[in-house]
């Protein structure tokens, strides 16, 4: 993969602005802000070429390098890889990738002495790899874009650096969320909305993000078509990013096919998603942390998984299986998956006794855990593990026998400061009229909202989705208060990759640590 194309790439990209025009050197429009506010069909197709390296039918952009034995294809050949999200140009390793903004393409370069380009030199560069008698550098690809594709790219480059990003206006950035605003869970949705509103109001009082306020655009996840249809409706409402919403098997895309950034999604990340950021480990990662803890007391523990037969339950089972497969001496876990909402504690206990496991991983609710423990023999001392999320924010409500038998894997901090912050959040939500029930998801929303703000600040005064994603990938040990510090990178979009093992103290009825911080390799 060739990451930098050199000066010749300027010629290639500039060609597209001139092809199809009647003048050899067109004049750049003076007011691009207005003319580029909404990209037309051709410019949208050109945008896909520039940023994604794909044509109108999804075909990859292809370029030959050097003597033709090396080839760039698809995303590797995308212009933005070298010339920047907004065509600003880059210079790394002593190789320059010049700016491709319309202002820079047609004017002479005083620093290098390069004149503005005309149609003849551009065509020769793109087809043959030379400008006049001068051969371009060996890193300069020769592309075979047809006339239609060149015209599309020309239309987009005429607005490069000036187009309006979806969901961004002079004074507002629109962020979407699909939460339950009706039905049995509407109190939870109201708490989530209040948590987001409180953070965004605080930022607005401080002057906003580069003088822009954050506008929350809500869709009812219990509305027509369910949560995934609600998320799709948000995509059509032109939002810059999504936050703490249900995610389908495929990443959410807007009408131009661009993936919308998504912070703290509710559900597993699709394997082909590039802009989804988890603020806490997924259930499959938590299962591997459980395995790491169990292995400290027994080298090859045989696990039995009891969980609902849904996406969450399968994540627990598959995460544990993947972790055990990585340790060749460990047996594969057995599993008993039940129909959600139809848990049979006696049957689960009988199946567990038949399996004779060394440890149990439980994925049901706190009420189902209590029933399961009561159905087990009191003489059975097999340890039980469960995600701490099943406790909600009320560990005191857990069945006493379940509290004695169960270890919980907890991805957040455990100290008095967190308890104080949770009380503060609850008070702020109540001040906004939110119900005083469980606020577990409201905590996740607050973490996501503050992470979103930090990413926008780092993306700069002219935020783009791509710059926002790149900015989030620079976060290291970012403190939010209600979560462990978050760290992302280009290869890791899971902000927290570890957890504590905790238990519920039978007297104080609060969670207490029983392990040091345990980490596993991120899966994204």
Automatic annotation (TrEMBL):
Family: Belongs to the leucine-binding protein family.
Presence of keyword Acetylation: no
Matches recorded under InterPro entries: Cyt_c-like_dom, Cyt_c-like_dom_sf, Leu-bd, Peripla_BP_I
Organism: Polyangium sorediatum
PROSITE patterns recorded: CYTC, PROKAR_LIPOPROTEIN
Keyword Heme carried by entry: yes
Cytochrome c domain: residues covered: 63-161
Protein name: ABC transporter substrate-binding protein
Any Pfam family matching the protein: Peripla_BP_6
Swiss-Prot/TrEMBL keywords: Heme, Iron, Metal-binding, Signal
């Amino acid at each position: 993969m060739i990451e930098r194309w050199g000066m010749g790439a300027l010629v290639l990209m500039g060609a597209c602005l001139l092809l199809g025009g009647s003048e050899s050197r067109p004049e750049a429009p003076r007011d691009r802000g207005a003319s580029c506010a909404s990209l037309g069909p051709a410019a949208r197709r050109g945008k896909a070429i520039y940023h994604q390296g794909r044509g109108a039918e999804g075909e990859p952009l292809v370029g030959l390098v050097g003597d033709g034995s090396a080839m760039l294809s698809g995303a590797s050949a995308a212009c933005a890889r070298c010339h920047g999200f907004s065509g600003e140009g880059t210079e790394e390793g002593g190789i320059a990738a010049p700016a491709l903004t319309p202002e820079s393409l047609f004017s002479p370069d005083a620093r290098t002495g390069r004149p503005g380009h005309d149609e003849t030199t551009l065509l020769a560069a793109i087809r043959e790899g030379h400008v006049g008698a001068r051969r371009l550098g060996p890193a300069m690809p020769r592309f075979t874009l047809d006339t239609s594709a060149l015209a599309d790219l020309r239309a987009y480059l005429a607005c490069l650096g000036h187009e309006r990003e979806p969901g961004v206006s002079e004074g507002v950035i629109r962020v979407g969320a699909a939460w339950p605003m009706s039905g049995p869970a509407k109190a939870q949705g109201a708490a989530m909305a209040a948590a987001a509103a409180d953070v965004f109001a605080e930022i607005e009082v401080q002057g906003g993000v580069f003088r822009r306020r954050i506008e929350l655009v809500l869709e009812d996840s219990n509305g027509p078509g369910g949560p995934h249809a609600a998320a799709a409706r948000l995509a059509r409402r032109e939002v810059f990013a999504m936050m703490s919403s249900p995610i389908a098997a495929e990443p959410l895309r807007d009408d131009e096919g661009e993936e919308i950034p998504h912070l703290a999604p509710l559900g597993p990340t699709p394997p082909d998603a590039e802009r989804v950021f988890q603020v806490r480990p997924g259930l499959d990662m938590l299962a591997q942390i459980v395995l790491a803890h169990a292995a400290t007391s027994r080298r090859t523990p045989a696990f039995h998984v009891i969980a609902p037969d849904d996406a969450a339950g399968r994540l627990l089972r598959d995460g544990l299986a993947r972790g055990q497969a990585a340790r060749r001496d460990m047996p594969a876990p057995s599993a008993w998956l039940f129909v959600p909402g139809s848990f049979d504690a006696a049957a689960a206990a009988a199946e567990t006794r038949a399996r004779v496991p060394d440890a149990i991983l439980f994925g049901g609710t706190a009420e189902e855990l209590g029933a399961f423990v009561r159905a087990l023999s009191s003489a059975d001392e097999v340890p039980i593990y469960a995600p701490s999320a099943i406790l909600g924010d009320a560990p005191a409500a857990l069945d006493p026998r379940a509290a004695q038998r169960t270890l919980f894997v907890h991805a957040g901090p455990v100290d008095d400061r967190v308890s104080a912050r949770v009380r503060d959040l609850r008070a702020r939500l109540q001040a906004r009229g939110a119900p005083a029930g469980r606020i577990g998801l409201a905590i996740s929303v607050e973490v996501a909202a503050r992470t979103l703000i930090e990413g926008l600040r780092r993306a700069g005064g002219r935020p783009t989705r791509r710059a926002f994603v790149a900015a989030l990938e620079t976060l290291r040990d970012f403190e939010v208060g209600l979560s462990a510090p978050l760290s992302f990178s280009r290869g890791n979009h899971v902000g927290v990759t570890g957890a504590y093992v905790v238990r519920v103290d039978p007297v104080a009825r609060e969670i207490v640590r029983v392990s040091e911080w345990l980490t596993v390799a991120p899966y994204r």
